[in-house]
Amino acid sequence: MFGSLLHLARLGRAGFVFAREGVFGLVDPEALPRPARVALSIARLIERRSSGTRSDKLTSALTRLGPTYVKLGQFLSTRPDVVGATIARDLEALQDKVPPFGQEQAERIVTDTLGEPLGTLFLSFGPPIAAASIAQVHKARVRDGDTERDVAVKVLRPGIADRFRADLSDYYFAAHLAEKLAPESRRLMPVGIVDTLARSMAIELDLRLEAAAASEMAERTKDDPGFRVPSVDWIRTGKNVLTTEWIDGLRLNDPAALAAEGIDPEALGRTVIQSFLRHALRDGFFHADMHQGNLFADRAGNLVAVDFGIMGRIGPKERRFLAEILLGFITKDYRRVAEVHFEAGYVPGHHSIDEFAQAIRAIGEPIHSRTADQISMAKLLSLLFEVTGIFEMQTRTELILLQKTMVVVEGVARSLDTRLNMWSTAEPVVREWITRNLGPVGLIQDAGTGAATLGRLVAEAPALLKRAALLSERIDELTREGFVLAPQSLKGIGEAEARRNRWGTVALWVIAGLLALHLLR
Asked: Which residues form the ABC1 atypical kinase-like domain (predicted)?
């Protein structure tokens, strides 16, 4: 019970900060039931009067609440189905703006993590060149044999793991409460959202996992034209420290520097889109945070990706779904796009394929015969989620992340070539995957996979039959004897429910008192 009170108190403080910064003013009251509208009106009474923009209010509140809320905001920018396209777009601007921690502290973390003196590990270890809420980056120099080279050393911020664990427990409490009190919220799977955030944070809080993601990406893309990943220095990498090859690259938002090196920005824009699609379709493994801060161009004109804390994975079924959806939009085969949704089981079978195809056409037609600068991807995405809601399509977290990354990738590519058309640029990659996986070669591979699966089932048949016989016997036993619930059990259940209701009432009064004290201050 004490844990619930603690969660409520911390969430109450977050609610107060949101109200004070004017975040609740971003909510459309007409979309809320009457009790929620009343609560919204009360919350706005303590709103701070300011001339800041909508984005400023949101980012200010999240920044005040600390690094976990900043990460939550960045994560929710990938979920316009949850927060709406407008707020998701505002959250895209949310950046980690925190001062670096001390040089001595960083050096101590490095030596403690790697178990060797700093002088043994590095020839030099410079001050931080970039700092975020989770970690900061130092430029250092190492010697391997007779070779010296520069490296980037990422050091985890001290105490950050404990802070994230506490805040994540609050999010889980709020998500379970939302699913219980608002059944209509279950379509958006709030607990699943927190699960995804927790998995993402587990990777970001263990730099060995981020190193593994970078290593896997490098291995999968080693032969990709115009794309590369910095190599990982595993000897100087541990839970709290990640060392990689130093990238002396050019920022994609610096056209003068690109031009000075003779790099074609239009070609680089095509590489951005085609590399992302190739990784998603071919590998089912993609960089899910491909904004301009994580992408550079090297002197040879290659696209270089860094920061592998947020990665996306999709299975073979989702890859086929994505490829056929993209090809359907490119070729204007909206009927096929609709059929793919039904075949994948994403739209319940009682809906009409023809009606869904009509809705898909409303999304697809506006994008044809236009260049990227004429297309509002935010409106396109908003319409897509509206359509999936009408047709009871369950939220698919991995597809939402994929779609949102596509929007970010297109934005980066558009900054390099304002006339770039995403769909014509995507077509060669999509057609290549379709030909490879759904053509004759793909059918032969599927047949081989099916034969192997059938072989495993045949080998396991005796064990499966034995388990089925045991299960049948157990069901027959329960059918004859029934499931007996003792009077003592019924009494215990009643007493437990009474205690829960009593403590719930106490908790509500405590929270009301805390809010009253806050307002009196």
From this structure: 94-341
Q: Of the given ranges (64-78, 286-300, 377-391, 392-406), which has the lowest mean pLDDT? A: 377-391
3-state helix, strand, coil in the chain (%, to 5): 65, 10, 25
Cα separations (Å) of 231 from 132, 176, 250? 22, 41, 18
Q: 377-390 and 353-364 helices cross at what angle (nearest 10)?
A: 170
The Cα–Cα gap between 152 and 309 comes to: 15
Angle between helices 422-438 and 316-331 (to 10 degrees): 130
* Single pTM value for the model: 0.70
CB atoms < 10 A from the CB of 383, how many?
A: 16
Look at residue 337 and tell me whether its pLDDT is greater than 90.
no
CB 401 within 8 A of CB 349: no
Does residue 155 contact residue 136 with C-beta atoms inside 8 Å? yes
**Contact between residue 402 and residue 322 where contact means Cβ atoms under 8 Å apart:** yes
Q: Which tokens go with 191?
A: 């607990």
* pLDDT confidence bin for 82, thresholds 50/70/90: low
- Tokens for 486, please give them: 């003792």
Give the residue-averaged pLDDT of 105-126: 96
For the cut 60, the answer to whether the pLDDT of residue 448 exceeds it is no
On the question of pLDDT at 383 being above 60, the answer is yes
Round to whole Å and give the CA distance between 377 and 367. Answer: 9
Nearest to 358 by CA among 395, 387, 322, 380: 387
Element containing residue 139 per DSSP (H, E): strand 135-144
Could you please report the per-residue DSSP string of 77-94? Answer: TT-HHHH-HHHHHHHTT-
pLDDT digits (tens, 9 = 90+) for 219-235: 999 999 999 999 999 99
What integer pLDDT is reported at residue 390 of this predicted model? 75
Active site residues: 289
Sign of the alpha-carbon dihedral angle for 172, 176, 177, 178 = positive
DSSP-H helix ranges across 229-331: 255-260, 265-278, 316-331
Distance CA 493, CA 499 (A): 10
Fold of 99-186+200-246: Phosphorylase Kinase; domain 1 (3.30.200)
Interval 69-94 mean pLDDT: 69
Find where tokens 């009457």 sit. 34
CA distances, 408 to each of 49, 181, 213, 265 (Å): 33, 34, 20, 17
| Strand segments (E) across 229-354 | 241-245, 250-251, 285-287, 295-297, 303-305, 311-313
Separation CA 380–CA 271 (nearest Å)? 23
pLDDT at residue number 519:
47
